[in-house]
Design brief:
alpha+beta; 2 domains; about 50% helix; elongated; DUF421; DUF421 domain-containing protein; YetF_N
Length: about 180
């Protein structure tokens, strides 16, 4: 169907504008963390907010007040999870994964690659994007909690030195980490 009624178009304009304004207000009120990409829960909130906005815009059976309440509920739950994570290491361990070391001092860590379902080609792509010519020039590649690959420093060929700065603490091969 191409066109149903002028009222439907008017509803989308009015409800869409009000829902958008309410969402922007709630996001400003709840802080930057609500739309951060720090972990899986943050991604869920971002997707859920978008889905809720689309539902409020296009579904006549969902009232604007219900949509705004859904926005507030999602932002409130995200705030509660972040608040508890900061204050409780046990809760933080429950809801977040740890970064995973995939390459260390030019050597691929195959067990970690398999466990995280990351290919060598994906690691090589991250190295190229960071301007590192090859794995032997990289200090480390880390799979972050948000799913991105971070390349840590590059070292000239033949340079040994530890260089494992504090950003790798607890992740070095042989150290136990939670996932």
């Amino acid at each position: 169907m191409f066109f149903e009624s002028w009222f439907g178009l008017l509803r989308v304009l009015v409800v869409g504008t009000l829902a958008y304004a309410a969402l922007v207000f709630l996001l400003r009120l709840s802080g930057k963390r609500t739309l951060a990409k720090l972990n899986a829960f943050d991604l869920i909130v971002t997707v859920a907010l978008g889905s809720t906005l689309a539902t409020v815009l296009l579904n006549n059976s969902v009232a604007l007040a219900e949509g705004v309440l859904a926005f507030a509920l999602l932002a409130g739950l995200q705030y509660a999870v972040a608040w508890l994570s900061v204050r409780s290491t046990r809760f933080d361990a429950l809801v977040k994964s740890e970064p995973s070391l995939l390459l260390h001092k030019g050597r691929f860590l195959d067990a970690a690659l398999r466990a995280q379902r990351v290919t060598r080609d994906e690691v090589l792509s991250a190295l190229r994007a960071a301007g590192v010519p090859g794995p032997e020039q990289a200090l480390a590649v880390v799979l972050e909690t948000d799913g991105t690959l971070s390349v840590l420093g590059s070292r000239p060929p033949g340079e040994e030195g530890d260089g494992a700065a504090s950003s790798l603490a607890g992740m070095l091969p042989g150290k136990a980490s939670r996932d």
